[in-house]
């Protein structure tokens, strides 16, 4: 009888305590979610509402525009590299003269110098940004202001140092924007990675094509740069007016914070972040190699590819090869929702083959028509853009949401490492080829 009474008491206690324990558990989960903004405890059905967010188009569109505007100035400076050098040199430098008295016409200060000015400040910024407070509005305000200042400096430059300073400021703007926007993307639907990448590819096409077209219409370099001031204004509109503020971070759905294992917890402190970097090498190394090979071609060898007596002069050939390359980048960066490739290292192998082709071509001039070069350059752009978008798309799926913000900020540096190394190597290789006797193209279609 006593046993039955004890059991009745136990049941009564359980009936009282269980609701309180459940409420306490829910309160604790809510507190954990508040203290850790990277973890979202989502009630049943919430994930369904996120997937059917009717205003999602605003975020996707904003990220496309932000990718376009952030990379636009960077692309324009590279497209204008040949002109930036030429305007402060009355005559091109000429390499060794052969028996016919004709040498290679090329600048001994290659467009690799512009590449370094365009990428080193960006790389410096990208290295520092992951360890600074994530004050997103301050960062983007600085990025927009620097972008506008860069166009003004280059447009009104009356000396080479002033033009290079404009390129440097534009580079810093791009670096601040890229690290911030990619880190910020962890708070939105993962498809903003796709639209961001497509926008950066669009910057390549629109940037190189707009510059080449305006120069073909005899618009002065100064007026060209002033016209392009519209893009920093569009960037500000897209970020502060079009992009929604993230109310709830749609990063994961868990029933309890206890489901989070140690590998998924957000990184806290400099030491913990530094220790985590080694886990990102599988993303960083292939992307770095692809961009190293790619920009070694673009800034060290493009300028030396030349077909005489065709419908394009030397400067125009350089500009339109850049347009062609950027078309390839845009196509591949816009394709991740249709086609994914996880083996990024394979793209680095193909890009190395492109290096071999271009290096031998600029030495011996054996390609019979510029149209073959256009096809290979398009392929080069497809590889570069594909490596970029597939790397970050993989990360959005494979890395725990709590660590994506830091991981994105770190891996985005890897393309800049490759580009910087390419710039340093492109200058001596370019100058060595300039010293060779001029090759003669036997057949031109």
From TrEMBL:
InterPro entries: Battenin_disease_Cln3 (IPR003492), Battenin_disease_Cln3_subgr (IPR018460), MFS_trans_sf (IPR036259). The keyword Electron transport does not apply. GO terms for biological process: lysosome organization; regulation of intracellular pH. It is found in: Endomembrane system; Lysosome membrane. It holds the Pfam family CLN3. One of its GO terms (cellular component) is lysosomal membrane. Coiled coil: none annotated. Keywords: Lysosome, Membrane, Transmembrane, Transmembrane helix, Transport. The chain crosses the membrane at residues 108-128, 134-154, 161-184, 196-214, 226-243, 344-364, 370-393. It comes from the Eukaryota. PANTHER family: BATTENIN. Belongs to the battenin family. This is Battenin.
